[in-house]
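Hi everyone, sorry if this is the wrong subforum. Our group has a chain we'd like a structural model of before ordering constructs, and none of us has done structure prediction before. Sequence below.
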Amino acid sequence: MARPDQETKDPSAPHSNTAANVETDMDSQLTAAPKNERDIDALRKRLRPIMLYVVSTAQFLDVVNGASVSIAIIPIADHLKFSVALMPWILNAYTIAFAGLLLFSGRMGDLYGHRPMFLFGLFWFATWALVVSFATSPIMFVIARALQGIGAAATVPTAMALIATNYPAGPERAKAFSVFAAFGGLGAVVGVLMAGGLIASIGWEWIFRVSSIAAFVLLLMAFLVIPVVPRKEAHVDFLGSITSVLGVTGIVYYITMGNEDGWASPKTLPMLIAGLLLIGAFLWVETRVVNPIMPFRIWESSLFATSVVLAFIQMGMIQGFIFYANMIFQEVYGWSAIKTAVGFIVHALLAIVVFPILGRTIPRLRLKPLILVGFILRCAAALMFAFVTEDVSYWRLPFPALIVHIIGMAFSLLPIQLIAVRDAPNQDQGLVGAIYNTGLQLGAPFGIAILNVISISTNGQQGGGADGSSVRGGPQLMKGFKNSLFGVVAFGVFAFLLSLATLPWDRPGHRSPAAGKPEGEELRDLEEASVMEKKEEKEEKKEKEGKKEKEEKEEEEEGRAVVESLALNADLVGVPPQLTGTDQIERETGDCSTITSRADISK
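Answer:
Right subforum, don't worry. Here is the predicted structure as tokens:
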């Protein structure tokens, strides 16, 4: 028999010690992670503030590439022996692939992570930009250029999503998107100037080689500074993905090539019909799959739908204004391409100044008045250009018109972008950015197509069309250009009325009631509710304790009253009450609740 002080062994003790040792070994293995991985994670945390400039530079590269190629169309076509019919594909191959895959790429970023999709997009963009620079035939150029557009489709919506998910709605997000927009304006300047310098010196090929080198450097920086988010399991809606990509591609093809081949041409009209049917099939599929590529919950906010429509309209306005301002410089003033690019520098340089300033001030302002004023200014700029003639100086109308236009662009573009992303949860930000950018991509060729019809119907086939194949027509083309600029004004009036009727009078950090609250605010609300609940419980407990104490005090006073009454009766008969020992103790301690039952009164 074991002594009481002898320690009895527990049969499970060896097993417990073994489990503890195993757990300790596992902890030591986990903490003994490779030094390189720990160093990389620490470096990412230190460099995380640079992430905004990295994703904005991706936007910068996309704009630089587009602006440069627009200037280099003729040198590329001459060097690679493009036919006149094939020349539009120098631009359109990239545009169609980019717009067609935006929705798919944005959703893949939501499902598999914005960081890996962004890195993949940069790698793909850089690789095919390099291939484009070594193109030896039109077919090789067009195919490589389309594949490069796929890379851009993966980076642009995920760049917007990375900003929206890392910067909370309000002042921080407004400032971040203003930097993003400013980089786009800077890209327009650098693209035009870089194209002119490279074409005149070492050749158009270096436009793509410089873009490739810059994208590979940016890829390395993005790997270091974009924070890693744990991957989640996801199921891809393959049928929805295929129908959406093919449907959007067909519509973009029709809008882009309609000017070239005719709107009712057998080359274009079947593409439109097929695109519309595929989009209809896509919408039908999305209502029946468990994990749709485009959840219809994103359309629950009417503001998002309005922002997409406004993005579509305003991009048509932007492209129309820039195109016909360019045509006025070259056709009416007779300027060369390089001189025309210099004439636009004020427009792009002001973007670098205006967007950051607006980004710092917009959190204190209401969005709707800014948007309305922005569309008014853009209409005024288009009207100023509409009255330019060969005798009107650049400094008299075009120069101030460009200044007014970029201010109006900032006032409308940035607030609409903020409205587009503000109601969406983080899990849908990639999709929201993709749909918003799809609206922009569709709006650009659509606006040019309508405005070009107006111009050609006025001027006939004298020249100045948007196909770039017409010969110079001279100042007499200004009549058609004027009517097209009036069309830009009509777009602006429609956008103004739509904004006035549908947008709320609130600030950037506000969310529409239908969208609920952001995740951070919901967490704060839960914490506040928990604190209030604990406070109420504490007050209720205190109230119960006070009530109990009051009852005990009343009982005590009642007992004392009984004792005093008994003492008074005893004095009246002349015999003092005899208390038991227990009664005496209770009296001395003040507990008189039971004294009436124990007092022994004798005569």
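For your construct planning: The two ends are 66 Å apart (CA to CA). Residues 519-573 form the longest helix (55 residues).
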